[in-house]
Design a protein that fits this description.
Strands 1, 3, 4, 6, 9, 10, 11 and 13 form an eight-stranded antiparallel beta sheet that branches. The chain has a five-stranded antiparallel beta sheet with strand order 2-5-12-7-8, with no helix packed on it. β10 and β11 (172-178) form a beta hairpin. It is mostly beta strands. The protein has one helix at 2-29; strands spanning 38-39, 49-51, 58-61, 64-67, 72-76, 88-96, 102-108, 120-124, 154-161, 164-169, 172-178, 198-203, 210-219. It starts with a helix and ends with a strand. It has one domain (47-180, 190-219): Exo-inulinase, domain 1 (Jelly Rolls). Helices cover 13% and strands 34% of the residues. The chain is globular, with a radius of gyration of 21 Å. The longest helix has 28 residues, at 2-29. Pfam families: 3keto-disac_hyd (PF06439). It comes from Larkinella humicola. Residues 1-23 form the signal peptide. InterPro entries: AL/BT2_dom.
């Protein structure tokens, strides 16, 4: 009888552990499910994305977008919000290799080649010769400090509400910018103004290699 009770207890304990293990496994393997967040990249294809010149600078490796090659830009052109975002939170997991440079654009629009004229670039650069580091609002409000290391995944997040842009690294605010009323940009930056548009990832040069995954957006009310 005693042996039977021990056996039953073991079976119950094993079942509870198995259930707990399954739950933990499911939680670990599933994307971070947060209310309002929408995935823009399925980890397998470029569905919803479009690139013009130098399309070979973008490939998919192990569930991430690998960016490496001559100047090119991969634009989100998919159905989410008809690829037009005004107020939003946008985030991605990013990893840079040593000496690499890239960027994430917002409020931009599809352009066949060269650097996008419309919108803003949020810098991705931890050790490139360009002194503007990760989280810089490129040439608008730059960051000189280095907050993350090469060869390590980190989260970079952009939030736009009205005229205010907030940039976070690993959930820490490192750059905040509010566009002044009636701002007057130089001629070559005339379209770098808060408005609306889509997102883009930048291929900077053949010596740079950067990875992006878990690319998500949360649309915020106007």
């Amino acid at each position: 009888m005693k042996n039977l009770l021990v056996f039953c207890s073991a079976v119950l304990l094993l079942g509870a552990c198995s259930k707990s293990s399954m739950t933990a496994s499911k939680s670990a393997s599933s994307p971070k499910a947060e209310k309002g967040w929408i995935s823009l990249f399925d980890g397998k294809t470029f569905d919803g994305w479009k690139v013009g010149k130098n399309a070979d600078s973008f490939k998919i490796e192990d569930g991430a977008i690998a960016v490496n090659g001559p100047v090119g830009h991969l634009f989100y052109m998919g159905p989410v919000n008809d690829h037009n975002f005004k107020n939003f939170q946008f985030k991605a997991k990013v990893m840079t290799l040593p000496g690499s440079n890239s960027g994430m654009y917002f409020h931009t629009q599809y352009q066949e080649e060269s650097w996008p004229k419309k919108g803003f670039e949020v810098q991705v650069n931890n050790s490139h010769t360009d002194w503007r580091r990760t989280a810089s609002l490129y040439a608008i409000q730059d960051v000189k400090e280095t907050y993350v290391k090469d060869n390590e995944w980190y989260t970079e997040e952009i939030m736009v509400q009205g005229k205010k842009v907030t940039i976070k690294i690993n959930d820490k605010v490192v750059n905040e910018y509010t566009e002044p009323e009636g701002v007057d940009r130089p001629k070559d930056m005339a379209d770098r103004k808060i408005g609306s548009g889509t997102f883009a990832l930048q291929a900077h040069d053949p010596k740079s290699k950067v990875y992006y995954k878990d690319i998500m957006v949360k649309v915020l009310p106007d």
